[in-house]
Amino acid sequence: MSYSFNDRSYISQQLENHIVKVHSIAKNANTKGKYIVFGVGSTQLLSAAVFALSTNLSSRANVVAEAPFYSPYKEQTDYFETARFHFVDNLKNVSDYGSEVIEFVTSPNNPDGNFKKPVFEGSSVQYIYDHAYYWPHFTAIPAPANEDVMIFTLSKLTGHAGSRFGWALVKDKQIYDRMLTYIDIAELGTSRDTQLRALQLFKAMQQGDGKEIFQFAYKTMRDRWEQLSQIISLSTRFTIQEIPPQFCTFFQKVRGPSPAYAWVKCERKEDSNCTEVFSRAKITGRRGSRFGSDERYVRLSLIRGQDDFDLLIHRLTDLVSEEN
Ligand code: PMP
C-alpha cells in the first residue's frame, strides 16, 4: 500500500464524497467551492490551520480564544510557538487595532455548548471555526455554516475518537495548500487505514435517508440533558448553563438543548474549588481553569457510555439530596 491514492493525493475521493453528503444531510455546512483537508483527528488540523494562517503576515500573529475555551488551542499554540505566532491569554493584550489576530471560534462551544461569535473584527483578523459539535445531536442547526476555515471531527459525529480522523473545509486555495503542506511535512499524509475505517462508518451512517443517526443521537443527548437538568433544578448549591431553544433546519422545528457537556457552577462562597466538591462525591469533572476560566466551574461530560452516565446521575442525585 502506497502513501497516496493513485500516486497523487493523500485524500480518498470516495471519503471526500461521503463527507460532502453527510453535510448536506445534516444541513450544517456549505461544502460548495470548499477544499477538504484530512487530519489525525481535528487536533492536528487546528495546528495546521494556525501555521497556514500565520504565513506571510506583516507581524507576529496573536492567537486567541475567548474563555471558557477548549484547552488544546492554548496548549498546542504554546508548544509549537514560532516567530510567526504565539498564544495570548488576556484578550486585552491585543488592543492595538490592526495587529494580526487568529481567533478560534468554537461553535457550539466546549465547555458550555453556547454559540460563539468572534470577539475580534477587522481585516487583520482571521478565524478558525471549530465546528466539532455543530451536528443536530448536540445543537440546533439554524443555517449551514459557511466560513473560510471550518473544522469537523469524526470523534463527535459517530464517537470514534480513537480512530483519529478529522477534516477541514477551506475556502481559500492558498490556505488549503499550506495546510496540505503541513500534513505532508508532519505526517506524509493521513493514514489510509483510518480513511478506510472512516469510509465504512460513513457508509453505515448513510444507509436509508442517512438521518437516523442524528435522530437517535439527538434523543439520547436530549434525554441525558433533561435528566441532569432536572436534578440540578432541585439544587441551590449548583447551577448549569442555559441554552435557549432554537429553530433547527435539520428537524424543521424549534428544539431544546442537547449539549455534550454540563458547565456547572458552584454557587456557595465556600465551594471555591468546584472540582473538589464533585470529586468528594466521586464525580470526575474537568476543572474550570483548564478552560481559561474560574475554579468555581467544572465541566461534566454527557458523552460517555450509558453505564458511566447512569453512575453520574446516581451520584449527582446523592450530592444534591445532601443539601436538604
Ligand atoms: N475541538 C473541540 C472543541 C473538541 O472538544 C475536541 C475533542 N474534545 C476536538 C476539537 C478534538 O477532537 P479530535 O482531535 O478527536 O478530532
Q: Label the overall shape.
A: globular
- Strand content of the residues, in percent? 15-25%
Stretches where pLDDT is under 50 for at least 5 consecutive residues are: none
CATH architecture of the largest domain: 3-Layer(aba) Sandwich
Order the strands across the largest sheet as they lie in space. 1-7-6-5-4-2-3
**CATH overall fold name of the largest domain:** Aspartate Aminotransferase, domain 2
What sequence of helices (H) and strands (E) makes up the elements?
HEHEHEEEEEHHHEEEEHEEH
CATH class of the largest domain: Alpha Beta
Determine Rg (CA atoms, Å): 20 Å
Question: Percentage of helical residues?
Answer: 25-40%
How many strands in all? 13
Total helices: the number is 8
Structural class: alpha/beta
Domains (count): 2
* Name of the CATH homologous superfamily of the largest domain: Type I PLP-dependent aspartate aminotransferase-like (Major domain)
Distance between the termini: 64 Å
What ions, cofactors and ligands are bound? 4'-deoxy-4'-aminopyridoxal-5'-phosphate
Q: If you average the pLDDT, what whole number results? A: 96
Main sheet overview:
7 strands, mixed
